[in-house]
Write a structure and sequence with these properties.
Layout (H helix, E strand, L loop, with lengths): L11 H5 L38 E3 L2 E3 L12 E5 L2 E2 L6 H8 L15 E2 L5 E10 L2 E13 L2 E8 L9 E3 L13 H4 L16 E2 L21 E4 L5 E8 L13 H17 L35 E9 L7 E2 L1
């Protein structure tokens, strides 16, 4: 209920870039933005869970303690995914930004097409060694009237996942069954084993080149917020065309003026509750988002500026202004 409007902007150059070793094989594929190639073409949903830290002592494994929110006996990972063509996104935006019409939220993402999916079910597994896996429930894919639903049904209806397993048959066991030494093993924090594992810190370790400082932020104040994970996120506000990620596009002065003007127009048109995404499907509740992920720009940076994350880690970065 507290989401409105766009969350990301993508330049056409992103779609044109091809991996060096796939240029020949992908030459026949058309880019997004080509007539007939919209965001519903070949659309779908995917996610990965991958390598976990594990401890082993004797015949027992320990994996991190995890849980998922439950509703109706399952945890919905994604649902009602839809793809959209030019007439649902590009056309109403272009018409408004070029001054031909007003931007009406009801015209944006008004129709769309359900992503396709194949119904099925599989075990939800984490590999703990190359030949042993811990099963924590089942994954389900179901095609429904309002789109596909991907969900996890843990073995425990509370949503809590087991974190101790007997190595011989990989069945879950209670912590009272494992050796005390394994029970008191603690998983490492970010940065405590390998330096490159975290925190992400572009404040103390700036990326190569000068994209952070040239042209640089519009405001040198370092803002920060603490998430519920808990970790800290720190960011600075940049003029849209000055943000680091755009500098490698090597835009000319005229291109920058055009893009900045367009973004300022768009920000000026948005009222804060514009409902581009039309809401949850029937019978489903909306996901909640950590309040730390919602940021309010300073009064002098409300139109044409974006927050750029420079730090994420367990420790609060020095000198940041908490919001």
């Amino acid at each position: 209920d507290n989401f409105a409007g766009p969350v990301a902007y993508v330049l056409p150059e992103v779609w044109k870039k091809r991996a060096e070793n796939w240029k020949v094989q992908s030459a026949h594929l058309k880019d997004f933005g080509t007539p007939g190639v919209g965001m519903s073409t070949g659309g779908g949903f995917g996610f990965e869970w991958n390598t976990l830290f594990t401890f082993r002592e004797g015949d027992f494994f320990k994996i991190p303690k995890m849980a998922v929110p439950m509703s109706g006996g399952k945890s919905v990972l994604a649902t009602a995914g839809r793809g959209y063509e030019d007439d649902d996104i590009y056309d109403p935006l272009e018409s408004a930004l070029s001054g031909r019409t007003q931007l009406r939220p009801e015209d944006v993402m008004a129709r769309g097409k359900n992503f396709e999916c194949s119904e099925g079910s599989a075990t939800a597994d984490f590999w703990v060694t190359p030949d042993k896996k811990a099963t924590v429930g089942r994954l389900h894919t179901k095609a429904e009237a309002e789109g596909c639903t991907w969900s996890l049904v843990p073995d425990d209806s509370s949503g809590q996942m087991p974190n101790y397993f007997r190595a011989s048959d990989m069945t879950p066991v209670d912590e009272s069954s494992v050796p005390p030494g394994l029970r008191f093993q603690k998983f490492p924090k970010k940065g405590s084993i390998w330096p490159f594992e975290g925190p992400y810190d572009a404040i103390s370790n700036a990326p190569s080149g000068d994209c952070l400082t040239s042209p640089g932020p519009a405001d040198q104040t370092l803002y920060c917020a603490r998430t519920s994970s808990p970790s800290w996120i720190a960011y600075r506000w940049y003029r849209f065309v000055d943000q680091p990620g755009l500098q490698r596009a090597n835009l000319g002065a005229a291109e920058k003026r055009f893009l900045q003007d367009r973004v300022e127009q768009l920000h000026g048109m948005l009222g804060g509750r514009d409902r581009w995404i039309k809401g949850a499907p029937s019978g489903e509740t909306l996901a909640s988002v950590d309040p730390a992920q919602f940021v309010t720009p300073p009064s002098h940076l409300q139109v044409g500026y974006v927050p750029i994350a420079l730090y994420e880690g367990i420790e609060k970065p020095h000198g940041c202004q908490e919001r």
